[in-house]
């Protein structure tokens, strides 16, 4: 299908209005966006019915010869060789495999395409299947008449990730390629990066396909947490957290967090968690193998639960609360660092700080010095005759000079200093707690290093450059703000320029 049915048109329009304009435009223009054929949508419709039988599913599947062949192939795979007779009909195949494997086979066949082995896609499908198996088990305990629909909803709840990966392939590795990243952290990054999360994209995509409104709404709210009176929604929402724990680098700690959340609502039954983990341990490996997915690391469900219970005990002694806070702070710091590093700190050519980051840091450090009665110096550097160099040797040689100069400058600064490219061939270095004389010595080390080392080679001949440097110290003038401090260093640098270039001048000295 290419668009929503009349029944879901209002919901589709509402979801489309919630999407940022650039996201909906990119998704609508993407030619490789995943889609579901009519037979798959019919299977989803059947899963809604409490009285649906395997015969109903088989009859729907048989309308698609390719899908039927896939179901028959799975039913004849090595996992079902112990059966006395091979299946001869689609009903025989679904009866042999069971409802969950049949649904997983249908939906994965329609959505896998050819790139499901890519790392980010593989992680998606591993989580989707783990969540679906967990949701189905929980539904059998809490709302058995809805187990089929809960399984399919869990399997499709993160389909928006596939859509975003397809529409933004260059960003997929950055957003989804990191192994063991927690799902809440992924959604935080999506909101900062796209202005929405994949739950909204998933719901929009399902509405676009023409899926029924109940499925769309369930997917839209599948990440809302555990506080719900709807048992089917609870099974779905818990399943994602269980899947995250199962696939985590530290599954016991993650599982302890899930149990802790459940205990905050109502004391959980240990046998239910124990049974769920045992079900995952025995069900997931053959299911993933059947669907040609590599199986995650083997998990011992008994040992996992014991370790999680020990962590919960430690939490009652307040240790886990501190660990949770540290982990959340670590994730926030890692995200903030990565985002700033990628987008707003680094000049790509010199690998030094860019102008925006320099000015922000100088502004913060300037005010810190004023309030704490500390000093600070700035060193303003301009490469001499750079335009002539570019005209004579070409911009490639000029870029090589800038890159080598950036590396040289980075090698001279101390921990706590900040060096950056201020613009063109201009550089700025911030020296906290350094007076004018110390800044002068630093500047002179730069000039000596340039005399010793060429910054490029042209036709195998070394190319040396000189610089004009201006220094300004906070305690040497009544500077009202950081801008005046930079201007003072800039004036000193131009004094050297007018005096013949290749030297150091200190403001006020």
Automatic annotation (TrEMBL):
Catalytic EC class: transferase
Catalysed reactions, semicolon-separated: 2 GTP = 3',3'-c-di-GMP + 2 diphosphate
HDOD domain mapped to chain residues: 33-225
SUPFAM superfamilies assigned: HD-domain/PDEase-like, Nucleotide cyclase
Matching Gene3D superfamilies: 3.30.70.270, Hypothetical protein af1432
Naturally occurring in which organism (per UniProt): Vreelandella lutescens
Pfam families reported for this sequence: GGDEF, HDOD
Protein name (record): diguanylate cyclase
Cross-referenced PROSITE patterns: GGDEF, HDOD
PANTHER family: DIGUANYLATE CYCLASE DGCM-RELATED (PTHR45138:SF9), REGULATORY COMPONENTS OF SENSORY TRANSDUCTION SYSTEM (PTHR45138)
Enzyme Commission number: 2.7.7.65
Start and end residues of each GGDEF domain: 374-509
